[in-house]
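Predict the 3D structure for this chain.
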Amino acid sequence: MSITLTEKAASHVTGYIARRGKGIGLRLGVRTTGCSGMAYKLEFADQANPDDLEFESHGVKVLVDPKSLPYIDGTELDYAREGLNEGFKFRNPNVKDECGCGESFNV
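Done. Predicted structure below.
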């Protein structure tokens, strides 16, 4: 079981936490929503919850709640700039279908 970040994603997270002045890493999870059933939750974490599972990738700590892990296990998080748009990209091997806008998925 693992969650990984590309070097670009790790660099972006590290830089953001430094500018923010606090934080221990990134919290990744899923929530039920959208037209395909699930959507990613991504936020900067200031502390770990007692039940969090911890992964480390390129020096960045990634925290995942146990209920989300089966849906995102093996996911690689990238950070990309495409034209004027930039943001995180999820490469999740568990995804069976995504909605047209790319905001939600099902497994």
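Helices lie at 7-20, 69-72.
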